């Protein structure tokens, strides 16, 4: 169960948001909110997991950094919305798992299959905290900015009404990201047009 610890203004390249910090007894989660969202329907929403490689080191094997930027830009354009940030690096398996799978991925293994081969979960993320945060804001329904069917089901199973989705993808201009997109479609069922 989450509790709200603090809130304050957050000024970004995409405009001003209000940042809310939550804690569940083990880790922190963050929501950044634009405008009045309580009680509203079809609220633009992104549920985003921490990615050390992309967010801190500008890694090119994924589009996590770009997805966050696109989500902030779309919320700013809409004038209202929410982005939930979860501390779930390495698809919830942690940064060490991400590094340990590098050799297998370099040999052609899909990320999720490499995790499984080393004894980790193919995707260890949970969207329980995200659902709790969205309920905290008393949203009627959300339009989820995601290509991931598991994220949709993970939220709806916990009582969040997902009234629609919006894909967030970029043109994969390097071989690493092209492979990541193929793996997401073939092994995780993501709705990405290749």
Please provide the ordered H/E string of secondary-structure elements: EEEEHHEHHHHEHEH
Largest sheet geometry: 7 strands, mixed
Give the distance, in angstroms, between the N- and C-terminal Cα atoms.
39 Å
Class by helix and strand content?
A: alpha/beta
Principal-axes shape call: globular
Name the CATH superfamily assignment. GTP cyclohydrolase II
What proportion of the residues form beta strands (DSSP E)?
A: 15-25%
Q: Report low-confidence residues grouped into runs of 5 or more.
A: none
CATH top-level class: Alpha Beta
Give the proportion of residues in helices: 25-40%
What topology emerges from the helices and strands here?
Elements: E1 3-12, E2 15-23, E3 28-34, E4 43-49, H1 52-57, H2 64-78, E5 81-86, H3 95-100, H4 102-106, H5 111-117, H6 128-136, E6 142-145, H7 149-156, E7 162-166, H8 175-188
Parallel strand pairs: 4-5, 4-6, 6-7
Antiparallel strand pairs: 1-2, 2-3, 3-5
Summarize the structure.
This protein is α/β, with parallel strands linked by helices and 194 residues long. The protein contains eight helices and seven strands.
Structure explained in plain terms:
This protein is 36% helix and 25% strand. The chain is an alpha/beta fold and 194 residues long. It has one domain (3-88, 125-188): Rossmann fold (3-Layer(aba) Sandwich). The protein has a seven-stranded mixed beta sheet with strand order 1-2-3-5-4-6-7, sandwiched between helices. Strand 2 (15-23) and strand 3 form a beta hairpin. The longest helix is centred in the middle third of the chain and has 15 residues, at 64-78. It is globular and about 50 Å long.
């Amino acid at each position: 169960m989450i509790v709200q610890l603090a809130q304050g203004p957050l000024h970004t390249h995409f405009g001003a948001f209000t940042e809310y910090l939550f804690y569940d007894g083990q880790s922190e989660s963050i929501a950044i909110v634009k405008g009045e969202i309580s009680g509203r329907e079809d609220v633009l929403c992104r549920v985003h997991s921490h990615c050390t490689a992309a967010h801190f080191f500008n890694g090119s094997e994924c589009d996590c950094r770009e997805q966050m930027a696109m989500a902030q830009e779309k919320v700013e354009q809409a004038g209202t919305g929410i982005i939930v940030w979860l501390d779930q690096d390495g698809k919830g398996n942690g940064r060490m798992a991400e590094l340990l799978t590098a050799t297998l991925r370099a040999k052609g293994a899909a990320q999720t299959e490499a995790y499984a081969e080393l004894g980790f979960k193919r995707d260890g993320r949970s969207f329980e905290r995200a659902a709790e945060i969205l309920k905290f804001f008393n949203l009627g329904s959300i339009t989820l900015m995601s290509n991931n069917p598991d994220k949709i089901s993970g939220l709806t199973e916990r009582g969040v009404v997902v009234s629609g989705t919006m894909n967030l993808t970029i043109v994969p201009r390097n071989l690493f990201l092209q492979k990541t997109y193929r793996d997401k479609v073939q092994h995780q069922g993501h709705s990405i047009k290749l």
